[in-house]
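Ticket opened by: R.M.
Priority: normal
Category: complex prediction / small molecule

The reporter submitted a protein together with pyridoxal-5'-phosphate and asked that the result be attached to this ticket for the collaborator who will pick it up next week. Submitted input follows.
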Amino acid sequence: MALQHAIPTTTREGFDGAALRADFPTFDEPTAGGKPLAYLDSAASSLKPRRMIEALSDAYAHHYANVHRGIYGLSEDATQRYEHARRRLARFIGARSEREIVFVRNATEAINLVAFSWGRANIGAGDLILSTEMEHHANIVPWQQLAAEKGARLEYVAITDEGRIDLDDLRRRLAKGPRLLVFTHVSNALGTITPVAEITRLAHEAGALVLLDVAQSVPHMPLDLAALDVDFAALSGHKMLGPSSIGALWARRELLDAMPPFMTGGSMISRVTLEGAEWNEVPWKFEAGTPPIAEAQGLTAAIDYLEGLGMDAVRAHERFLFELAWSALGGMPGVRLLGPADPDEHAGVVSFVLDRIHPHDVATIFDSEGLAVRAGHHCAQPVMLRYDIPATTRASFYVYNAPDDIERLTDAIAATQRLFHA
Ligand SMILES: Cc1ncc(COP(=O)(O)O)c(C=O)c1O
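Result attached by the on-call engineer:
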């Protein structure tokens, strides 16, 4: 099916996603059906630019030794590059200092770090923790575990029919005096961009600390954590063009200083005797064992790539693709779209359900057309329960997507509907 309106070859902002595909070797790979790849699953994990892959390989070939322990040139070089990545990430997300960045494996580990370390030290019996119905399981299950262990209460702020955090429900629950509010900046299941500054202000007025899940926002929009005024934030490198197995916890320095270690062992200590140990300073206090040495160097290259494009341009590009997809899919019969319609409140994610066709069938047919989308509950089962659906199909956009992907998406939806409803 052709789209109603002509599709320009470049976006309004002059950022040609199709041209960028040359930087991503995955597009050189043949798909199973022999069709060109339309990669619409970046919310699960992004593809990797050649520059990042080369940096990773270069790290292993030329800049690799264990860090923070060798008194020889190779180790000093690797240490310098590892710490450089910390500085680059700090600047990229608006941290006040690189000492506020703890490298971990992924956003899930960052959230678990807070639950285990801050949570165990600060949450007691009867205390209230607030999460929301919109969260990824990574921002639900660690809090369920903590609440069960401590005898604390865990409540979930409701979401509205349009897929927003219900601010009235938030106010009601904040009035109960929670110790902590955890919520996502961008919903991976709905695409909703939440009003972080307003929610954080309300939470702080109520005396709660705020943990923001930025796994789906850091890769896609400019971020200034200091300005947002949250207390903790969790992210994954693999969603932002970087390698897997590196992510970060950002937290205010005074919180990190006061928190007990999460994991213990080598590197995180300043002194060990047979009787006990003293901890290293932050952030190293939280980085037990050998860290992601090469992955940090890959992450630097990913940040270089994104900064080369400019995060304002990345956001504008995805907003443009979202508007195109929303209006194209919204005009098709038998397509139910989830999340807010306003592009200011919606990231480059379109989550939809086709009448009487299971999302897994949709994704299987799409695959034969070269379209990679995610079908399922997106690790956000409470969102599916909220809208009384088993699953959705999700198309998520990034720098290498372009209007031709949206055209192929609408064509594939129409073909799937013809196949099932013939
Ligand atoms: C909003 C959100 N939070 C957390 C995560 C967990 O990320 P990871 O699996 O990299 O730990 C994801 C992953 O999809 C996500 O979308």
